[in-house]
Each structure stands twice: as structure tokens, then as C-alpha cells.
Amino acid sequence: MLPYELFVGLRYTRAKRRNHFISFISLISMLGIALGVAALITVLSVMNGFQKELRARILGVASHVQISGVDNALSNWTKIAADAKQQKNVVAAAPYVMAQAMLSFDSNVQGAIIRGIEPKLEDQVADIGAHMKDGKLADLKPGQFGIVLGAELARALGAFPGDKVVLISPQGQVTPAGIVPRLKQFMVTGIFEVGMFEYDNGLALIHLADAQKLYRMNENVSGVRLKLDDLFEAPRVARELTTMISADAYISDWTRSHANFFRAVQIEKNVMFVILLLIVAVAAFNIVSTLVMVVTDKQSDIAILRTLGAAPKSIMQIFMVQGSLIGVFGTLIGVVGGALLATNIDVVVPAIEHAFGIAFLDKSVYYISELPSELLWRDVGVIALVSFILTLLATLYPSWSASRIKPADALRYE
User: Pick from 57, 295, 308, 402: most CB atoms within 10 A?
Assistant: First the structure.
């Protein structure tokens, strides 16, 4: 059997009011809450999508965990890779040589990071091979001195596949005329574009054997890159590898190497949550004005209930039920609407762009030309809970005010 406070509160919510303006304000409050909740879910889902997309693009070039040698030299990398694979989360390992150089073609000169790789092993730890615009990583052959350029780097040099660029190494040769930079001609065998300007504009790939010969590293490498089955386990795996790897080396993971970037994205997401939550707060506190008018309209009913023995606490609960229902229905409508919009953003946005002839993310300006979205039910739960708490808080003062009404004063002019 329902408590009579809940029963009366539900009856007040369903009953037709003499003052239609109160019903209108109640509807506006409910729709305001629904709109705020839906907007909050949609925006956070889009930001989650951007975060996931950027993370995928960064880790398509960077590594989950990196073992690098002291002074950029690591010996016996095959044993280190084998030891690292003993950790159950490590699924692949690939050696690399990392160095700086200048690239020259015709009259254009650009600085770049040179990464020496084993093409077959590199495909197991990175996604560069899947982002090749021209050629493929397998075209890098030892001794043939081929080079794969980032798309922006190739554009700045004006180089195309088949062209020969000059690589200028900072490790000079001592001659009677002084220190002369080491020069080596490389043929462009491919061009990649991963969608991150940092890599597309400043990274060039050559074969590991060519890099070892060019930078006089003999059989040494700069380090070993590891891929994990779960990228979020990278910090734990890196800690465990420090006890498993006996070599003198540094071990870092992607959360450290790109910590500032991902921290900035997370801060932006949190700020957006607070800003959009204000929309819900404004709509929730419209319930205050609604209930104040309801209390004024129902003074005689309150007086009758009090004379029949209703306690002030019961009167307060009746109006809290009425205000809470507005918040609950508004939140539910917002959750359903926000979830539907977030999961269909790839359909809704193109339809809006086509209808109005606009482009939210112009392909000529942005690398990510479509709005990504990732709906996390954890976020939806937090939003729904916070929305309900705000609406519940908004009912306290009007309900308390109703419980303070004295029957004699309310019925004096009846």
C-alpha cells in the first residue's frame, strides 16, 4: 500500500490545475532538464570520441611501452625483446633506431626525426602501414637506402615517390678542412599520413640496417617498442618490466610520453561537464518557482490536510514528490534523447550539413572531418544522478515553506 504522502503527491501531479500557467512552467522545467541532460550526454560522448580517435592516431605511430638504451644505444635487442614478451600483456616487439637529420630536395630543406625500422616487425607494433598514401613499408630493403616520408614533410620538400632526397646527418666527419656533415642520398619509396601533424610533418622512416650503418651503431639499436593487448595496462606493464629486464635501459609508457596532451583533453572534458551542467541547474531551479506557485494555489488543501492530522513532515514530502517527478521525467527524457543522438551522431550531423550546406569540420582544415562519438554508460549514470540530485535540492525550500503554513491563516478568508 502506498504511503499517503506519495499518493497525494501523485494525485497533485496528475490533477488538472485551475492555474494553467503553473502547468506551463512545470512543462518548461521538465523540458529544460531534458534538454540539458541530452546536451550533456551528447557533448561528452563527442569528446570521448575525439579522445579515442586522437589516442588511436597517436598510438598508431608511438608505442604502448618503449624500452630505450642509455645514450641512445641498446645492445642485444633480440634478448631484450624476448624477455619483454614473457610478460603476458606484451603481444609484439620491434627494434628501432631514432636520430635527427636534415632532409634536402632541390632547394628545400626540412628537419626531421629519422626512425630506422624492421618493416615486418614494425607492422606488428604500429599502424603506419595502414596509413600509407603511396607505396608500402615492405619497400624498405636493407642496403637500398629507401625512405618513407610523412605527407606534410613530403609536401614541404616537394618530393614524390621515386625522387631522391639528401639526408644530412649531424654526426660529421673530421677532415683536414674541419668537421663536414655526413651526406647520404635516399630514394623516396612511400608516403604516409596518420592525421597527426607532429608525425606527418616531422617523421621519416628508413630500414633499420641502413640507419645502423648511417649513424655508425654497428649492431646496436636505440630501443625496442612494445605493443600490448590492452593499452590502458601500459603503466602497470612498464613497472613490471623494470624487474624483468636486466639491461641498462629506460622503460616508459605512452601515458608518460604524451601525459600533457591527454591531461589537457581530460581537463577540457571536465570543464565542459561543469559548464553544461549549469543548463541542468537552471532548469532544475525553475522547479522552485513552479512549486512556490503550487503551494500558493494549494493553501486551502494544505490547511485541510493539517486539520485532519497531517504532520508538517508529511506536507513537505507531498510537495517533494511532486517536484521530484518533474525532475525524474525530465531526466529520463534527456537520457533517452541524449543516448539516441550520441549513438546516431554520424547520421544526424551529415544530415544537418547537407540541409544547410555547411561543414562543421572542413576536410581542408581538420584531419578529423567527421564528428566521432563514444557513448559511455558510466557518464550517462553520473549525469542522471547529478540531475536528479539537483532537482531534489530544488524542491526543499518550497516543500519546507508548505510545511510551515498554519491552517488558521490559510482558511481565514475561505
Answer: 402
